[in-house]
Amino acid sequence: MNYPSLKSFVLRSKLCLLLLLGSVVQAQAEGLTAEKVRWHGFISQGLIQAPETNFVNLDDSISAELTDLGVNMSWALTDNLRLAGQVVYLDGGRRYTKGTRLDYLFLDWTLHSDFDWRLDMFVGRFKNQHWLYSATRDVPFTRNAIVLPQSVYFDSFRDIAVGSDGLAFKLTRNTSLGEVELNWSWGATNLSKEQSQILLSQLAQGDAEQEYVHQASLFWRPDQSAWQLGISLLDSDFTYEKAEQDYYSDGAMTVQRVMFNGRYAAEFWELSSEWVQERLDISDFYAPGFQRNSFSQGWYLQGRYNLLPKTWALLSVDLFDLDKDDRSGRKFSESTGGLVPAYFGYQDDLTLGITYDFKDNLRLTMEHHWVKGTARLAYPVMPDLQHNKSEYWQMWAMQLMYWF
Fold first, then answer.
1. Which CATH number characterizes residue 202's domain?
2. Which of 64, 292, 340, 367 is the most interior residue, by most CB within 10 Å?
3. How far, in Å, are 63, 110, 161 from residue 189 at the CA level?
4. Number of domains in the chain
């Protein structure tokens, strides 16, 4: 599908943002104070190994490609207008694109705020606020695990799912039943050649483009309760334009998600869970006239417990099926004439971890994963038979992080 109106809107929004920033910065420069501008950052480095897979590297070695660096800023331009931005350097091996990037840069305009409700509008490059960890997945000390549950937070899809260029709104309302939060966003993400190949394999020589992504979410936090419950919806279209010499054909993909989530945060323990059903509709792409419509499902349950002062333990179960009507992967394997093993149709993960806080801003996290299946290993549309040879595989990681 072609949405020129969205592309025009994004371009116009960026131009308006620059013009507005110029006028506001000029007006506010003389009154700049520490109370108006706040800086924070984080540094983390780790080691990771996932033998017999292409998850991190291709030689099964212990890798130092587990780096997260970031600096963020929040500037209160006026009482109801805020500028926020973050630059990060990420290195996750083969999981996502390595390098420095503008993580977000947006204007937050508070349209209304009183005791009962608040409405904010965000214009620019903003983070995905619709899932439990989507907005902060690149900030290591805000997540429970080094490697998030892949059923929901698929690393190969990270650069697309983490945020968008466009427009978003957040409405919070205090009621007699508790706080209700409604999020809505509309935008798109530019895909580089490297990002496209992480999704589509090195065989892809053409141009992949996200036409749009439309999301909405609703969260409910009951009054005087440690619970948070939510639901989120996603709809997105992609197109692929083949190169002159290309393995793939011109094609289109539609991705749609429905998700339910819940979190309980007590003083000494925490539970979090998300369930997702994702529809993937592929037209052409593999070959002219090709058509596939499938529904995948996944969910995870994570628990954290405060074992000792400054020490937390993690237990996580993460399950994913590429086709909800073929959980064993048998039909998927048969459709390839047995060329692709059935274990490419699912991925189940059991994780144990431990976290120790040396200081309030210095933390060491270690975790070990026992995994069955390879459905969430690259590449989503082209199984890597050469490097993902085992149904059962393991992964471990450790990461030291500091924030300020």
1. 2.40.160.10
2. 367
3. 29, 25, 9
4. 1
